[in-house]
Amino acid sequence: MRFLVSAFALLLSFFSLTAHAWWNDDWAARKKITLTNPAGEVADAPVLIRLHTGNFDFLSASEDGSDLRVVAGDDATALKFHIEKWDVVNQLGLVWVKLPKLGASTEAWLYFGNPEAPAASDAKGTYDAASAVYHFNEAAGNPADSGPAGANATAFTGSRVAASFANGGVKFADGQSLTLPPVPAQGGWSVSLWVKPESLDGALMRAGGFSLSLAGGVLTAQAGGASATAPAPLAAGKWQHVAVVVEGGALKLYVEGKAAGEAGGAVLPTGPLALGNGYRGEADEVQVSGAARSAAWVAVAAAQGPEGTLVALGEDEASGDGGHGGIWGTLFAALTLDGWVAIGILAVMLVFAVMIMIAKTFYVNKVDRANRQFMQAFRELSTDLGAIDKSNGMASTFRESSLYRLYHIAAQELSHRFRDTDASHLKDNAKNLSPQALDSIRASLDTGLVRETTRLNKLMVLLTIAISGGPFIGLLGTVLGVMITFAVIAATGDVNVNSIAPGIAAALMATAAGMAVAIPSLFGYNYLNSRIKTITSDMRVFIDELVTKLAENYSR
To answer: What is the mean pLDDT of residues 440-467?
Structure first.
């Protein structure tokens, strides 16, 4: 029963009646975004969605990406986002999305395919009020703050890198630096960035009462009297995520999203924050916040690298004509009641057919294996053909053998005629089975053969019903569906292809479902039938062999 319920539930999942609602019919396509975050729940997390030719069709969207929209998993709530980079020629897009709540598993939708849609990219709305965010994607000048704080850099002597961690980045040589204005602290302070060091020594950043430096690749953060040192060095020439959080007198250092050091006695940094001026290497995606970020927030930020597993994009889904969820959504939406009834009946038939095929296969295998074991024991008998039945435990050993059950019938017939079935112990006048007795034993064996054959063929008739009845039920559903479709056309007068095609295609689903029931049932039935015929033939041969041995041992 548990198997039946599980199989039926699995089958129904393929014929689901529900499809996600379409957020707005003006958009022709969408793509599911699945975010897996094992670090813990995070509020207002900015997440980077990397689009490229392998996961997004840029020709289906506007040339400048203005038709992009990001909608929450409820398919109703539009989310704040902004486009850092949109390059149709090289088919590369970087989209930052603000997730109000990022749990262990979160879903969202990326909509596109509306050339009339105005641009909705909102950089300042993507980040919280306490953040200053630097993407370094400007062509020239001082780096600008993409966040709501408007804390644009006040000085920059480094060089720009066109292709960096995300889009553009900055590179520092000896003596070069970047100066960022202070972000007002709101009970804490945080900085998060990606670094790619060329040299493993130097001061990475400094502010009033705060410093973060490298010595042999090992990071050391200081804030007031607190000092925290990472246990392992950074690697040269590789992008790595670094974060520092100061909160409640505690200094916390993170590397690659994991806690790397902590110390007490920290004070909040003051004044401008300077990057470089001793550090040689690249930096990108710098976020400075006047609030203390949680460990989960830092882990999410670190999981957004090119090799991160935070974001996964699904297949494109088209809106269709009046139905959503792609081609299958259109077909299911156009399916009439008679089609659902036919497919429902066929689904139940398929569940029973699969269950029977699996159960019968296990049963036939057990019988075949037990028969082979029994024949090995039977061929070792000499003068006492009833020895197996008289042996303790043999009955349970061969309980699955159809040959043993036939043998048991013969052994019982012998025990009724002879007190001792060992032919070597019988006197000449007692060692006698008349022709009439042999015919009686054979008749009993033939009766047993019929019963064993019936047992082997039990429920096989249901497979024949699925083979022959499935296509006809499906055909009936198709015929009724086509009749209804043409009746609707006649009533409405709408004879265009777009109105006819979905109904006809949906009606044909019933026939396809009928074939899906009949084809596996036919293969399963033929396989099982051949196995059953083999076992039946073995039983007939065994009866002949057994009767011959009886006549040889117990007749004059």
So the answer is: 92
